[in-house]
Amino acid sequence: MGRVFDGGVTSSPTTARPAAGSPAHTLDAATWSALTGPHAHFAIGTDRARRYPADVAPFAALESTDDPAAWADLRGLYATGEVAALAVPAGTAWSPPDGWEPDGAIPGVQLVSTAALRSFPDEEAVRLGPDDVAEATDLVARTEPGPFRPRTIELGTYLGLRRDGRLVAMAGERLHPDGWTEISAVCTDPAYRRQGLATGLVRAVADLVRERGDVPFLHTSAANTRAIRLYLAMGFDLRSEVQFAAVRAV
Predict the structure, then answer these.
(1) pTM
(2) Structural domain boundaries, residue 10
(3) pLDDT of 114-123, one tens digit each?
(4) Are 117 and 98 contained in the same domain?
(5) 186 C-beta neighbours (distance < 10 Å), count
């Protein structure tokens, strides 16, 4: 499970409520909307099933999880033993069809920004590039904010903070459904926490997202109540529950 999600499993998802006016058809299928929209150039697959390259992200999506043909298409995109990460309906008994076996699930929540979110640049933040991937991967391995692959940084802008030359905090852009951009990989070295570094980076990434005319949103584990409280205080709103499921090709 940790190979895909890099996080723990919780059994009691936080209650979420839809944000007024949110476009359910887009954010309820955020990965599919990204892979058929602004991230289509990353997509591998068909009109019914798509995935990111393995070195970009572990995520995949189906046009409909109820369509056996879509699952068959998806199976054709994975080698036996390879794991796909999908968002599936929360609060339901769910299992994959033939050709797949469950590999774990994490209850999560989706949050969207509101007008209350103050966003502005962080003067100390630097844009991360290919030369920073090794350090970013090490930071992610030590803090476990979620999956980060060698080419994840190509999905959008990633910002970092350095102390004494070391990368100690980062945040960036991941899924990009039309009109929306997900803020992800928010993490801080344990030795530098409680200094507001991650908060500043989230505001800075949100500022970049808004400059393009997009709306920031994010996901987190329902078990990460501290992060949820922080995001709510910043001006995000709980929109929905989501279940992150890993399935292994057999």
Answers:
(1) 0.89
(2) 2-106+243-249
(3) 999 999 999 9
(4) no
(5) 23
Same domain, 81 and 147: no
Count of domains forming the chain: 2
12: pLDDT strictly greater than 80:
no
Alpha-carbon distance of 109 to 132, in angstroms, equals 29
* Statement to judge: residues 88 and 201 lie in one domain: no
| SS3 per residue for 119-172 | CCCCCCCEECCHHHHHHHHHHHHHHCCCCCCCCHHHHCCEEEEEECCEEEEEEE
Instruction: Please tell me whether residues 97 and 119 are part of one structural domain.
Output: no
Going by C-alpha positions, the residue among 42, 43, 53, 56 that lies closest to residue 150 is: 56
- What element of type H or E holds 42? none
**What whole-number distance in Å separates Cα of residue 71 and Cα of residue 201?**
38
Q: Tell me if 146 sits within 8 A of 8, measured CB to CB.
A: no
72 shares a domain with 9:
yes
- Please give the DSSP secondary-structure letter assigned to residue 194: S
Question: What is the per-residue pLDDT across 88-121, written as a single tens digit (0 to 9) for each?
Answer: 878 777 789 999 999 999 999 999 999 999 999 9
Phi, psi dihedral angles at 160 (to 5 degrees): -140, 160
pLDDT band for 21, please (50, 70, 90 cuts).
very low
Query: Do both 94 and 120 map to the same domain?
Result: no
Provide the pLDDT for residue 48: 98
Return the CATH number at 192.
3.40.630.30
Q: Is the model's pLDDT at 20 over the cut of 80?
A: no
